[in-house]
Structure formats: C-alpha cells, structure tokens
Specification:
This protein is mainly α and 334 residues long. It has 16 helices and two strands. A two-stranded antiparallel ribbon has the order 1-2. β1 and β2 form a beta hairpin. α5 packs across α9 and α5 packs antiparallel against α12. It is flat, with a radius of gyration of 32 Å. The two termini are 59 Å apart. It is a multi-pass membrane protein. It is found in: Cell membrane.
Amino acid sequence: MCAIRVRPKPLSGPAADEAGPPPRGRRSPAGAPARPRAALRPARNWAGLLYVVPAFTVFAFFVLYPLGQAFWLSLWDWDGVTQATWVGAGNYVDAVGDPEIVGALRNSLVFVVFYAALPTAIGLGLTALMARVRIYGLTFFRAALFVPQILPGVVVAVTWRSMYAIDGPVNGVLRLIGLDGVTRAWLGEFATALPSVGLIGTWVMYGLCMVLFMAGAQRIPAELYEAARIDGAGAVREFFTVTLPGLRREISFALVLTITYALRNFDIVWNTTSGGPGTSTTVPSVFIYRAAFTTRDYGEAAAISVLLTVLILAVTGLVLFLLRSKDDAKGARR
C-alpha cells in the first residue's frame, strides 16, 4: 500500500480571520519566519557626532569660512575703497593667461624638488644609517639636525642671505679651497638664484623628514630585519625590502607637509630675493602679496589664492593616492 499525502486546504471564512495573515519575510529551513534584513543591522549611535562638533566648528570658522570669503571676493574687481565691480571668472581667466603667473607656478614645482624630494631622500638615508650604525650621542644629533625646523623663516632667510653674499662664508670657503672662479653673487644671478633659495628649503625640511622616519622605523618589527639578514640581505637590500615599505605612511605624511610648504612658500623667498632677479624666484605667494598690498587688486589676489589652494589639494591628494597602503586600498574598495 502506498501512503497518500493530503495537502491541507487553505482556511477561509471565520477560521481564516482567527488564524490571521501569514507571516512575512523569508522562512528558515526549519520553517520559522526569518528576521527582516533591516532588523539585523546595528543601530547607529548619532550621539557620537556631538564630540566632533567643537572641532568642526573651529575648523569651519577659521578655514572654511575664510576660504568661502576668498572665493566670493575673487569674483569681484575691488581695490578695498571704491565700489566693487562684478567680473565673474574674469580674474581666473586673467591669472591663468598671465605668463608671469604661469612661470611662478613652474618655480613652485621646482621648489617641490628642493623642499620635498631632496629632504625626503636625505631623511631616508640618515634613518637607514642610524638604524644600522651605532652612533654615540644619537639624541644630540637628532636634536641638532631638527633645529632648522624650529627656527623662524625670517631668521633662516636673513642668515642664508648673508652666507650667500659676495664676502659671505660660502664664497669664503670656495676661495679657501682654491675655487675662486666659482664664487659669485648666488642670489643675484638668474642661473643660480632659484637653486640657491631651494637649497635653503632643503636645509630647513630634511630634519622634519628624518624625525618622522626614525619614529616610524621604531615600530617596524625587529624580526623582519633579522629574517632579512639571515637570508643574506645587505644594507641596500634590507633598506628596500624592510625599511622603505614599513615607512610608507610616514613618507606620505612627510611629502604632504613638505609639498604644501613648497607650494605656499613666501617668507624665505621674500626675505632673500623678493622674487628676483627679475621673476626667476617669483612664486604665486609673491604675486598674492603684491596684488593685495601693492596694487590693491584684492580680487586678483583672491583668485590666485584659490588657484593655489586647488593646486595644493590636487598635488597632495595625488601623493596620498599613489602612496596609499594595501590595507587602505582594501578599505576604500569596501
């Protein structure tokens, strides 16, 4: 005999009303209704955002609001006294089409090499050297190499201006070793003014890079160095396989700081050459200063300021994107 399975008929009438509507949602394998997907999500605690409000208020008042005011001012032609005239994007068109401003941007990119690339390379070299060679009085050397970073820019500029003078220490050392033909007015010639000012920035910024890299090298596990040495890695291979990958975040942070300083550089340039000779060391910040306080064209000064801000954000964003770690890239994809 075969068993006949009878499917129960759906309830109707008063019995259906007493049974109520069928349960909603998916059913588990046991037949019980599954919980709605929305109920499985953790509740968001919006109260945590209250801790961000004080810092965001200060940031908005001292950064976002002035930036918005600068953008609004860049749309006008105003000398600070007479009635302003609406020009729209005219100030931006004039700034982009001005060959002197374009040349100033090129000078800023050259300063990126001296203010960012060279200090980063020197800082990495000093970090690798101090990590392998035992140096007595290491704390003193760290403090001495970091001193240029804490000096005011005006003091640094005035000191190096006297060093670059015709009768200054730089030419004095060259004469002492028999290189009289190399001596010159380093800040007064078109060919040497820009790299001379750039070397000042290298001297100022390499201490910051070194301190950042040495702090990052201390968190690299010692087992990685021991494994590399067991495998027969020399100093160069150990640096490129262990130290350099371990300092990825410190390198990106150092490049952001140094590139930002290079692109907005003003105090060292103004107090050494004032943008001269000619426009060989002129940077956008010098144009901003002259437009605001010499020709009193506040709209043009604001427009150049906004363009410089956009350039800094674009360059630093590109650096952070190229040097992001694998963990950061995976988190971004999620």
